[in-house]
Each structure stands twice: as structure tokens, then as C-alpha cells.
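Sequence in, structure out.
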Amino acid sequence: LKSKAKSLGLWNLFLSKDYPEGAGLTNLEYSLMAEIMGRSIRIAPEATNCSAPDTGNMEVFAKYGTPAQKSKWLVPLLKGEIRSAFAMTEKAVASSDATNIETSIQRMNDHYVINGCKWWISGSGNPRCAVYLVMGKTSTRGNKHKQQSLVIVPANTPGVKVVRPLTVLGYDDAPEGHCEIVFKDVRVPLENIVLGEGRGFEVIQGRLGPGRIHHCMRSIGMAELGLDLMLKRVTDPSRRTFGKLLAEHGTILSDIAHSRMIIDQARFLVLNAADMIDKVGAKGALKEIGMAKAIVPDMLLKVLDRSIQSHGAGGLCSDFPLAQMYSIG
């Protein structure tokens, strides 16, 4: 599938026209394609080299990387030869406020020494994961948004230990996985810093903005698939209750109608955010990105729950993709 996608030009579509390495699409144009890819859940993003967290990491290297960093990491990522992970969330603190992150990145002579524990690190379970982007503190003084930095850590660096894979409602999302990782006295050269000390927040805002929109549009694709499966189920002539098709019951019709409305509402919200990123950049579109990030997951879970209910017990088993999609949402 990857070879076919490359031959058709369906490769690295997520990198906007601002980057020569990409396919030349705007964020708005790619958002529409991300929705289509979301319907296949896992296959299409992987086949087109548009899987998270690689997409965001490649954007970091493309936007902020030095020529040496791009050569070593961006090029093989763009070719689909390796995978990567983004290590930010921590077990011991409330990581939704990233200023709480405690992982230490201390400068010692010609190296940085990293100590800390991360978890829910998506992609880190993949055997092809070759590099981590690790966020931590290079300083504990001054402006709290200038204390964090981002460093590049090759996955085979001594002191890096993948402790365990974590499951989401029982799903381990193999082969990528979401893992807990310990960094103990991990040493990387000074040139592995991204952009500079104290500029971690600047980098992650540039990374997470477009990435959130991409994920939101894939989620809308999943919601559309969930609605399609519900429609197929409730219009099945062999499934009748109390003398009626399932689709003839008022509660089912209400679920379908409300699902259609909230999917379309969410789509317009995300497309507006993508358009704003194209016009004013991710930093200027924080409000629109934030609204999309809040609305879309809520919408997806509502639609999937309705679809699961329409499938009865079957909705919770692997005969249908609904439970897996719910775990992703």
C-alpha cells in the first residue's frame, strides 16, 4: 500500500505548502483528506505516511530542525523508513498544564543529561521507533514558559527504558502502542536541542496546533463511519422489534438526526480552524483550534455510543470497529 501511495503522490500529505518536503496542500485541503483517511481508522494514515505522532514530529524537524537534524531524522521519517514518538506527558504531575512537567534536562559539559518518567507516549511501542522528542526542564527559574526545552533522544540511547505498554479500554493499539518510559541519566550531545534552551513551548505550540486539526478531521471520518454502520444496522430488514424496523422507532430516528447535525457542526468548526491556520498561523488560530479540540472528541463519542447501542452487544465486540474507535476517541 505504501508503494502504491507513493506512486500516486499520496505521501506526506500533512506537510503544508509552506514546506518543500510536503505535497503542497494547504491545511484546509489536507483536512478534507484527513477526514477520508479517518474512515479507515489505522490503515490509510499509515499507508500514506500520515500517522501521528510522526506527522507532528516531522513538522518539528521541518520547521525548527538544523540541517544536521533534518538529515539524520527528517529524511528517513519522510521516506517512511523509521517511526518516532513525542514524550511530553508525565505520570507524577497534572500534565494538562505542561508547566508542571518535571523531567530534568541538565547541561553538563558537551552533553545534556535527562532524568524523568513519561507515559502515554504514543508510537513508542513500535519496533521501528528510532527517535523520541523529549520535553523537560533545562531551568527551574524565571518565566515558567521559558523553562522547558525539547531534545532529540535516539531510542537506543543507554538509560532509555520502555517500562510497559498501556491499554485504552483494553486495546493496546499494536504495533504503535502507548508506553511508559523511564529516562535515567540519558546523555545526548548539545546539538540535539531543538531550536534552543527554554523554547520548548514555542516548539510544541507550532507542533500541536496543526496536529490537533488533523486528528479532529480523522475523528470526523470515524464519526461518519460510525453513523454509516448505525444506518446499515437499523435498516436491516431482518432486525425488527415490536413489529417495526429499528429505523422506524422514534428514539433511533432521533439518534440518527442528532448525529448528523453534530457531525456537520464539528466539521465546519474544524475546517474554519484549518482555514485560520492557513491565514494567520497556528499561534493566531489558538481560539479556533481550542474550540475544535474541545468539541470534536465529545461529538465522536456521542455518535459512536449511539451506534454501539444500535448494534446491541455486538457493538462492544471486535466483529465491528465501533469499540476500537471509541477507545481512540
